[in-house]
Amino acid sequence: MVAIHQVREHNAALGAETPGLVALFTGATRGIGAATLHQLVRGLNTPTIYAVGRSATQFADQRAELQSLNPRAQIKFIAANIALLREVDRVCQLVAEAEERLDLLFMSPGFIPVNGPDYTDEGIDKCMSLSYYGRIRFVSKLVPLLTRSRNPRVLSVLAGGAERHLEVNDMELGKSYSMLNAIDHMTSLQTLAFIHMAPRYPRICFVHAHPGFVATDILSDAFATRWSGVFGLIARFFGWLFIVPFVKTFLAMSVEESGERQAFHATSRRYVSAVARNTGGLEQRHPELESANGVYLLGPKGELKANWRLLQRWIGQGYADKVWDHTMAVFENVELRNREPKSF
């Protein structure tokens, strides 16, 4: 565990430690992503930040606040619907045309899929696209920029360390979709994809963070969804009246603290790439990290959560490669689909 005072001491020194950082944020217009962006902009010296969201108008107030925190920061907004992989590609192309390197890729978009699958016109469930496929698409497209950074880092906020279940024979959950199954499955997909990528891009540090319960609107949004049937009405009633207030009051970390901690995860030399680790790049040696090979699964307070016994079994069974092959097949199918003439 990393004490909050250590986090704050580190974040207070960001300006001297990471000058001119270039970052791309997805999911930064609300919740944990917005809180993390707030912390980094406040602490960094002359950063260039690309924030991706649905509406520049809705981001305007947030952007003004960020500029007031750090007038030397360059805040560049890109309007995009990143549930669509073609929009992910467009964002990556815009950043690649403007920048020579990318130091940080921060990803936190998503929601709780209480009503089952909701497919985009690319044939992918929207939640899975935001929480998994789109994120891996961002990484794969931005690898050339990331590898030009001195200390590149990819930080995905989902549920690292909570890997329990993987639908090996139903990767897209076409037959086995449920809210809990989707969350467990996407968590495992994310970690295994990072494990596949890390040895191929050993200069990149991959962090899969589990923020735990945080007092964001994601739970409120879930209970605001129009659940079907009598059970749905009862669930919404008790959710709004009891569950959401209880979780936010007694179980959840504040959004501000979670943002502080994710900013630490995004910049601390406690977590480094395989190359940096092997050349003495760690602030201090952590024996548990030696098997991580540049992949870190972190709990809400920065604790290492890797269930390496399960992960090693999956790796031995070839699941990391199977996940990657499946992901590339989905990408190819989407590319073919997007090239097909649209009928009106």
UniProtKB/TrEMBL annotation:
It comes from the Eukaryota. InterPro entries: NAD(P)-bd_dom_sf, SDR_fam, Sec_Metab_Biosynth_Oxidored. One of its GO terms (molecular function) is oxidoreductase activity. Keywords: Oxidoreductase. This is NAD(P)-binding protein. It comes from Chaetomium fimeti.
